[in-house]
Write a structure and sequence with these properties.
Hypothetical protein af1432; NT_sf; Bifunctional (P)ppGpp synthetase/guanosine-3',5'-bis(Diphosphate) 3'-pyrophosphohydrolase; alpha+beta; Beta Polymerase, domain 2; ACT_dom; single chain; HD/PDEase_dom; five-stranded mixed β-sheet
């Protein structure tokens, strides 16, 4: 580069610095300015020999990220300095210790978090990417600003991606849609989220993007005319009330248009709510809410509202802090239009997210705002041992899910994702409450734990020391937090059952002169068609693999000569990764229909489904029910031509299955007999009773009890134990 060009570039860099200070959203003290100045000088020095792909000096990138952090997100001086330094440790001679020494521990910690994220390999398959994402979220333990600066960094990369090769553009854009846009949404950075989505679409579906973009450009004047017509209708009424306000229209984003076109299967012209109108009013804190509803009543005087589409986020703000009143009204020319009513303060929060909260708080409170939010994210991360792809999926579910608001018995408001159940609510209150949940009342009425909650419900949880999670709870809970906790308890329980099972098995094999070692375990796993050794121990523990079955195995095992030939004929694949951590809820039983009935069936030849595949049943004319995989080549034609003959089917684990059995008891009536019977059943044997009735006649009694057991072994043991109760004459299974 020529001397003149270098001087010109330095001039530009200096200009950028002044601009950075000028646009900062938070007011900067002299100390703040000093901190930013020295961070700036270090960044310029560190990156002095680096250039970007486009040829410009590399230092323009950290400066641009710092500008986004300062003005668009509106963070503090520490964040601005960290943004300036975010690539220094990774790419230059400066070390983390240097940063710590020069800028203090907080900046060093944030820069370290950002460096860790950058070190994650970029070209990996999706599950690796998910794993990385999880690691990145776990760095949140250090400081949430890491994530926010990372979003700003990604945003700037997306803005300057033109000089990259196409495959990289598509990869980075997809990752942005998958990870960064949902995160920005969660943090309340709606503007950046929208930009990230639109920019991603620009690279993942360029034709669609350009097409929608040009259509929006074409209809700009038409939109403006519409907004003017709307404003003019209500302008006088608002002015008469002495309100100080302005109205602006906002076009929905290209990405959300694309989503609507896909979801409704329509073209651009057929989307009816292409834009929203915002009425932003000036107000002091005292009258804010009152004025919002005043404006609401004026708007609805002139335009008919859609009664179903009122959203009041002023009385109960979203968990991101967003406040506004949204209504959809029938606007001019018979078009539905969304009207958002918000004060200037609310508007600022909507634009800036958390930063705006801090601006309106001072000192101690300022810190608390970010604390509350950190805790919310922390919950999603608490269970860090789930598999990574599930983790991202659950995280995404929790990010994008709509919220409902329910009340505790004392009248506190809690926000939960849409579709949440009383079980989710109990874990939301506290993990311990969740674990001990026995039942729930909604609006004073006892309801099943899988009831879907609605906004405005008042929920009371009934707990009991004896209650503990069971397998069914996973069907009842929808939030990531509740599911993670339930899974970990069930895993622990299964492990302890499996440990007992292992000991029982060791003893039983010993009596058959077989040692429990890797070889015999592997052979047993194959013999019982299981997946892991833990499966085997678990089933022995609950008694679904009983003595007779173990004897059958022993005779085939001892007869090694015969089995050697058998194996030559039918080479059984050695089960892979024995002794994996989790117990696979493996499946060996098919059930059909909503009632999950057991029916006779045949597995179809065309797709050979195996346990665990997603399947459906097809009622054939001559062969009864044939079971096909959902992705079977014939599935589509069967489903479209013979939909009425299709029944849903799924695999269940027979060891997880519970069966109902009726027991009849007869004997001599005496005081306390009923409590003794129930004690044997529920306390000693931990078996669930569904119903029981007793009748006495002339000193004798007959009783009938319905119990739920996992297998016949447990039932036999139960009848034995009941037989031993004083006064009982006969116990029979009906």
């Amino acid at each position: 580069m020529t001397q003149a060009a270098i001087e010109q570039e330095n001039k530009l860099i200096a200009q950028e610095y002044k601009e950075l200070l000028r646009i900062s959203y938070q007011t900067l003290s002299d100390d703040d300015k000093k901190l930013i100045r020295s961070a700036f000088e270090v960044a310029v020095d560190a990156h002095k020999d680096q250039r970007r792909k486009s040829g410009e000096a590399y230092v323009f990138h950290p400066i641009a990220v710092a500008k986004i952090v300062a003005s668009e997100i509106g963070l503090d001086a520490v964040s601005i300095a960290s943004a300036l330094l975010h690539d220094v440790v990774e790419d230059t001679v400066y070390t983390l210790d240097d940063i710590d020494r020069m800028f203090g521990e907080t900046v060093a910690r944030i820069v370290d978090g950002l460096t860790k994220i950058s070190h994650l390999k970029k070209d990996m398959n999706i599950s690796q990417q998910a794993e990385n994402f999880r690691k990145m979220l776990l760095t949140l333990n250090d400081d949430v600003r890491v994530i926010i600066i990372k979003i700003a960094d990604r945003y700037h990369n997306m803005l300057t991606m033109d000089s990259m090769p196409e495959h990289k553009q598509v990869k980075i854009a997809s990752e942005t849609l998958y990870i960064y846009a949902p995160l920005a949404h969660r943090i309340g950075l709606y503007n950046i989220k929208t930009e990230l989505e639109d920019l991603s679409l620009k690279y993942t579906e360029p034709e669609v993007y350009n097409d929608i973009k040009s259509k929006i450009e074409e209809s700009k004047e038409e939109q403006q005319a519409y907004i003017d017509a709307f404003s003019n209708t209500i302008d006088n009424s608002l002015k008469q009330e002495g309100l100080n306000y302005y109205i602006k229209g906002r076009m929905k984003s290209i990405f959300s248009m694309r989503r609507k076109m896909k979801a409704q299967n329509v073209g651009f012209d057929e989307i009816y709510d292409k834009f929203a109108i915002r009425i932003i009013y000036k107000s002091d804190a005292k009258n804010e809410k009152f004025l919002a509803w005043k404006i609401y009543s004026i708007v609805t005087d002139h335009f008919t509202p859609n009664p179903v589409r009122l959203r009041d986020w002023i009385s109960s703000p979203k968990s991101t802090g967003y406040e506004a009143l949204h209504i959809t009204v029938m606007g001019p020319k018979g078009k539905w239009v969304e009207v958002q009513i918000r004060s200037e303060r609310m508007h600022e929060i909507a634009e800036k997210g958390y930063a705006a909260h801090f601006k309106y708080k001072h000192g101690e409170q300022k810190e608390q705002g970010i604390e509350v939010w950190l805790n919310k994210l922390q919950e999603a991360l608490e269970n860090s041992n789930a598999n990574a792809v599930d983790f991202v999926e659950e995280f995404k579910l929790n990010l994008y899910s709509k919220e409902i608001f329910v009340f505790t018995p004392k009248g506190e408001l809690k926000s939960l994702p849409k579709g949440a159940t009383p079980l989710d609510f109990s874990f939301n209150i506290h993990t311990e409450v969740g674990m001990r949940t026995r039942g729930a009342k909604v609006n004073g009425k006892l309801v099943p734990l899988n009831t879907t909650l609605h906004s405005g419900d008042q929920v009371e949880i009934i707990t009991s020391e004896q209650a503990k999670p069971n397998q069914n709870w996973l069907d009842y809970a929808t939030t990531a937090r509740a599911r993670a906790k339930i899974k970990s308890v069930l895993r622990e329980e299964k492990k302890s059952v499996a440990e007992e099972g292992k000991e029982i098995l060791r003893r039983k094999l010993k009596s058959q002169k077989i040692t429990l070692n890797e070889d015999s375990i592997n052979k047993m796993v194959t013999f019982f068609k299981l997946k892991t050794s833990l499966d085997l121990f678990f089933r022995v523990g609950i008694g679904s693999i009983d003595n007779q079955m173990i004897r059958d195995f022993a005779s085939s095992y001892s007869n090694a000569f015969i089995s050697f030939f058998k194996n030559r004929i039918r080479r059984s694949p050695a089960p892979e990764d024995i002794d994996r951590e989790e117990i696979t809820s493996k499946y060996d039983l098919l059930v059909f229909g909503k009632e999950e009935e057991k029916l006779d069936y045949k597995l179809s030849q065309c797709c050979n489904p195996i346990p665990g595949d997603e399947v459906f049943g097809f009622v054939s004319v001559s062969e009864g029910i044939k079971v096909h995989k959902k992705n079977c080549p014939n599935a589509i034609s069967l489903q479209s031509n013979y939909a009425y003959r299709i029944i849903s089917a799924k695999w269940v684990d027979s060891s997880q299955e519970e069966f109902k059995a009726d027991i009849q008891l007869t004997g001599i009536d005496n005081l306390g007999l009923v409590s003794e019977i129930t004690e044997v059943i529920s306390d000693n044997m931990h078996v669930n009773m569904r119903n029981l009735n007793f009748s006495t006649d002339g000193g004798t009694f007959t009783g009938k009890i319905t119990v739920v057991v996992k297998n016949k072994g447990i039932l036999n043991k139960l009848t034995e134990n009941l037989q031993q109760i004083n006064g009982i004459d006969k116990v029979t299974r009906l």
